[in-house]
Amino acid sequence: MTPFACSRCQQTVFFENHQCGNCGARLGFVPGLLRLLAWAPDAAIDAPAEGDSGAPLRPCANSSQYGVCNWMLDAGDPHPLCRSCRLNLTIPDLSQPGHLDRWARVEQAKRRWLYTLLRLGLSPQPKQGPDDALGLGLHILAPQPGAEPVMTGHATGLITLNLDEADDVRREMARAAFGEPWRTLLGHLRHEGAHYLHHRWIAGDAAAADEFRAAFGDERADYGDALMRYHREGPPGDWASRYISAYASAHPHEDWAETCAHWLLVQDAVQTAGAWGLSLHSAAAQADPAQQPLQALPPDQLLLSQWLPVAQFLNAMNRSLGLSDSYPFLLPPAVVHKMGVVARLLGRAAAAGGAPANPANPANAAAPAPTVPDAGATAVPTPSPPSPTITNG
Prior knowledge:
The chain is of the alpha/beta class and 393 residues long. It has helices spanning 61-66, 99-120, 168-178, 185-202, 206-216, 223-233, 252-275, 299-320, 333-351, and strands at residues 4-5, 12-13, 26-30, 35-39, 57-59, 72-74, 88-92, 137-141, 153-155, 158-162, 391-392.
């Protein structure tokens, strides 16, 4: 993520900012332009020729009503919500203490994830109804006393996210319980979003499915059996030489999701480092990743000559401060190869204009993406028609 400059006073501002701390201008991010624009504190938000279609702009309704969004949409758009917020099918009951703050954190992480996809040339569209298999919808659910647990996961374009993942204390308890090196809200969205990317742009393309299987394995293997075996036996002893995480060894779907999520993480991190001029005397000094399309850099160059020096610096700095490593991962050759496959497959989807893949013939069709990363959970039904204001307790 790059820093931005306030278009009124040129002060550095950031992706999440709603207001410039220097001149007080209101800020709004325009997804079609990937720009953060500024308006005077008392000015109407109306910027002709600056919208996605060259039209005046207005803020997302979730900005004026709840203060949880800073994205803009064309003033003539009949939908009240921006392209990020309109993906929501269910939001938490905001009358409950703490829910508004946690929901705001979810929305912030979701916008960062979508920003990366937009830079890649991939633009998920909201589900148009329960029969829309290619659209994307999110259920952001708060656990209820006495009810079934809310399981974060993906199923046929539906991402379910447990609101407790936006609670730092509860998320850290879950991280420790599962023995994970780290656990973040943005990481959850990248992981579940990776399942969606496979479902939306790869599973229905026979050639892409073949390349996927050559790198990650045959995803038609029984998912439930694979998960039970993983939880019973753990990862193989040599998992660190073949997978980005232990969980990636559970099933090809999870190997893809973990690897794809990590690929998005690395690109975001390299862009951020480049935008701040951090080169560390590596090959990163030869190029400016912040100004290049994410697909422009070969995966091995991005990972080995640009990202690893930054990651090693971050770890060394954390150790100097008495903290755990910021980046507790290895990138063996097998993982670098898989990330290259991720880059190629997503790059082809973007080059095709982000259009949905044609359904493969039944002989080559992929098994449905797993409902959740834990056996036994089910997805929440899609409301019809989709509503951005449905709440759960």
